[in-house]
Amino acid sequence: MTSPSARATPAAAGQRGPADHERRAQIVEAADQHFRHYGYHKTTVADLAKAIGLSTAYIYKFFNSKQAIGEAICARCLSEITAQLRAIVTEPVSAADRLRRFHPTLARAGAALFFEERRLHDIVVTAVTENWHAGTTYEEELREMVRTLVVEGREAGEFERETPLDEVCLAIGETLWPFAHPLMLEDKLDRMEAATAALAGLVLRALRP
Asked: Of 41, 38, 192, which is closest to residue 110 (Cα–Cα)?
């Protein structure tokens, strides 16, 4: 199966030119630092150009808008979360053990990323609420990983098989989303550990054959 991240092309995210161009990486890195300091909404492409020492026109050779630059940064940030979750998915232990750790790992990784770097919280909120490509790809990746765990659990006889697979994955995804969305997660930080443990336990009890 091709992962959502592999399907995310430069054009889909508003990028132009070669995906691995050195200047593109330089622009993204400088923009990342600029957004962390000043915030996404208070920064213009002209501000970025001045900070990097390039012309605005040159930046537009690689990105068609400020949002496209934000997309690249947001995708990189969210990939830090999905990388931790993918590491769990590929571990050689039972599907139940892996799924039990999925909720708390998602919440902890999000809390560390969104709230220790407050400016990054703002850009991720924008990505999710405005349906940026980076935000929708993030959702797709979470759904894909959940589906993998459920399928493997069913094949191993750990999970029931009567409920339609799509229905099961949708329901589990709904229990994850409050910990994946930065605004929802912010409201749960003080009870995050207890909430994720309780939900993971509830999901696993529902999946028993």
From this structure: 192
Q: What is the pLDDT of residue 141?
A: 94
Q: Quote the pTM value.
A: 0.80
pLDDT above 90 (res 83): yes
Per-residue pLDDT tens digits for 135-187: 888 889 999 999 999 999 999 999 999 999 999 999 999 999 899 888 888 88
Are the beta carbons of 139 and 180 closer than 8 angstroms? yes
Residue 28 to residue 204: CA distance in whole angstroms: 41
Helices (H), 60-94: 66-89
- Whole-angstrom CA distances from 193 to 10, 59, 136, 139, 198 are 37, 43, 26, 22, 9
pLDDT digits (tens, 9 = 90+) for 40-54: 888 889 988 888 888
One DSSP character per residue, 150-185 reads: HHHHHHTTSS--SS-HHHHHHHHHHHHHHHHSHHHH
Domains and CATH numbers, the chain: 16-64 (1.10.10.60), 68-207 (1.10.357.10)
Per-residue pLDDT at 2 exceeds 60: no
**148 token code pair:** 């993998």
- Counting DSSP H helices and E strands in the chain, the numbers are 11, 0
Contact of 140 with 4, CB cutoff 8 Å = yes
pLDDT at 9 over 50: no
